[in-house]
Amino acid sequence: MIFEITDTIHETDEKYIFEGLLEYNLERIEDKNPRDLGIYLPDETGRKIAGLIGSTHGNWLFVKYLWVSKELRGKQIGSKILIQAEETAKERGCKYSFLDTFSFQAPLFYEKHGYKEVFTLENYPVTGKRYYFTKSL
Question: Which residues form a coiled coil (predicted)?
Answer without folding.
Answer: none
